[in-house]
Amino acid sequence: MIRSVSHCPYCGHLSAGIDDKQLEFVLAPDHGDGQPYPHLAFVWVGLHALTRSCRIVSEGSRVWFWIRGEGTKLVPDMRKAPLAEYVSGICCDDEVEESHPQGEYRIGGASAGGREEERPGSGEFHLHLPSSQRVVAILDGYGIYGPDPDALVAEVRRFVAVITGAVGD
Ligand SMILES: [Zn+2]
To answer: 0.90 cut: is pTM over it?
Structure first.
């Protein structure tokens, strides 16, 4: 089934979801033509599959990152993906205020815990993997939106280029 990831805070559209059978990212699941809704700048989704004893099962775990103008990619290692790390940091409030984008933006989606509070079963659910292993899946996912999402993407790219450039100095 399609699990919803994030609705647009401006117009309420379901901007992104995941197909929990195919383990695929689905942009704008309701209209299905692969085109993003107008306010969407970024989507970050983390799906983590756990055994009963809370061990991560890589077969059922994915991190997807969608960027307006670029599309979706899988992020196997967040430490090597500074843009994805920064975007998820803004959404989870890990980044300090000064490093947030200056342009107007809003955040959609929620952590697994937030989803569970709103609707039990939406942030944590059972999955049957193709290998027939049964796991518990934890779904965190956010979208970043703005009235001018292209400008927002450009601003965030510039900012991340500066901070990652500075790391090597
Ligand atoms: Zn919208």
So the answer is: yes
